[in-house]
TrEMBL record:
Protein's recorded name: non-specific serine/threonine protein kinase
Active site: residue positions: 21
Cross-link (Glycyl lysine isopeptide (Lys-Gly) (interchain with G-Cter in SUMO2)): 23
EC number of the protein: 2.7.11.1
Source organism: Microcebus murinus
Alphabetic keyword roster: ATP-binding, Cell cycle, Cell division, Kinase, Mitosis, Nucleotide-binding, Serine/threonine-protein kinase, Transferase
Catalytic activity: L-seryl-[protein] + ATP = O-phospho-L-seryl-[protein] + ADP + H(+); L-threonyl-[protein] + ATP = O-phospho-L-threonyl-[protein] + ADP + H(+)
Database matches in Gene3D superfamilies: Transferase(Phosphotransferase) domain 1 (1.10.510.10)
Domain Protein kinase: 1-148
Enzyme class per UniProt: transferase
Keyword field contains Metal-binding: no
Transferase in keyword set: yes
Residue sites binding ATP per the record: 25-26, 39
Amino acid sequence: IIEELADALTYCHDKKVIHRDIKPENLLLGFRGEVKIADFGWSAHTPSLRRKTVCGTLDYLPPEMIERKTYGEKVDLWCIGVLCYELLVGNPPFESASHNETYRRILKVDVKFPLSMPLGAQDLISKLLRYNPQERLPLAQILKHPWVRAHSRRVLPPCAQMAS
């Protein structure tokens, strides 16, 4: 899922589109199990890839949105980290009893990994959940990450399979 999502977001970012609301509810599975991004309601086409609007889903908001700073496509990298954690654990990493506590944990990047989480997944997530957007693992490096490579079950869309 993470591999196909990173590939799809590479396409979006190349077209100057930031999704801004990556979460399980906005991913669909195709007939052959391929991942598709849905709900572009919060997305922005912005040639400069710079925005200030606070939008998305609380548990997935990156620090720069909470602090109302100008941000770019790297908000989607943060969301991939939150998504990966949620897919493996069953709930998002910063989930708390109150909105304010969730905001506080996001701003501190207060992530606690369960002992059951594979070290490779912890490494990937910790490289995506960085306070400084410039330090987040780029999409191309997600695709090359050893844990992602080791667990690839990549399903190409039918048109790509016919071409090979």
